[in-house]
Amino acid sequence: MSKIIAVTSGKGGTGKSSICANLGYALAKQGHRTLILELDIGLRCLDIMLGMKGNVTYDLGDVLNGTCDVYKATTVVKMASNLNFISAPSDPFAVINAQQIKSITDEIRKYYEYIIVDTSAGINENVFDITAQSDLILIVTTPDPICVRDAQMMSDEFYKRGNQKQRLIVNKVSKKLLVNGVIGNIDEIIDTVGVQLIGVIPDDSEVTLSAGKGVPLPSKSMGFLAFNAISRRIKGEDAPLAIKL
Ligand SMILES: Nc1ncnc2c1ncn2[C@@H]1O[C@H](COP(=O)(O)OP(=O)(O)OP(=O)(O)O)[C@@H](O)[C@H]1O
Ligand SMILES: [Mg+2]
Q1: 3-state class of 199 per DSSP?
Q2: Closest residue CA from atom 23 of ligand 1
Q3: 203 CB within 6 A, ligand 1
Q4: Is 15 in the pocket of ligand 1 (CB under 6 A)?
Q5: Which ligand is nearest to the CA of 16?
Q6: Using CA atoms, how far apart are residues 4 and 30, in angstroms rounded to an integer?
Q7: Angle between the 145-160 and 186-193 helix axes, to the nearest 10 degrees?
């Protein structure tokens, strides 16, 4: 049975989709059959990030309206053959409910070790329904205090609903922000959000460059090392935070 990992954030643009793509790639390269399920309806981007733009024949919208089954809507990613993904519906008005997601994941989870779910930003019922079914929730924030506040509100809501399976990722971390910013250090962010840290990802322009080109991160880049470390921590290994700012 696969482990379902939902990637969420209160604020938009924190890096959820980038994290899904790079974490998916890291796990696949470590030999794990991995699926990325894109649930950011109407705002899909993983086809580009995974180098599959123009190669998605069927998407989640086709599954929902009965055009095809979930297997036909699954695309094999060229850069890692044991990495698959299901693209979000391109129709911005497509509606998907928690029960539909559950029946999709129930059907396919025996084929994967990890299913990574990319969600839309914001505190809304849809995200809570989706994440209720996951084994691990990754809350993503940047060091920006406004973003940290939103992450805190999101995690409070998860706790209120009895969900304890959260871990925190602090993304786009730069020396400039930490030293000159209003947030003093990573510990302060962890204390504010109230969730155990699983990874710190540096602000690395390679993340944007690789995503735009649809290629893997260079293996010596800081971003690559950070994603590798997070993937190992997800597996329960004792990996260092791999960040040298
Ligand atoms: N570690 C990083 N370093 C530098 N840029 C990053 C990093 N992570 C993400 N980005 C950039 O930040 C932007 C937003 O990233 P992304 O689309 O992954 O965020 P998102 O949380 O999925 O956004 P949305 O809420 O709109 O779905 C992109 O331009 C991406 O390349
Ligand atoms: Mg996104």
Answers
A1: strand
A2: 13
A3: yes
A4: yes
A5: 1
A6: 17
A7: 40
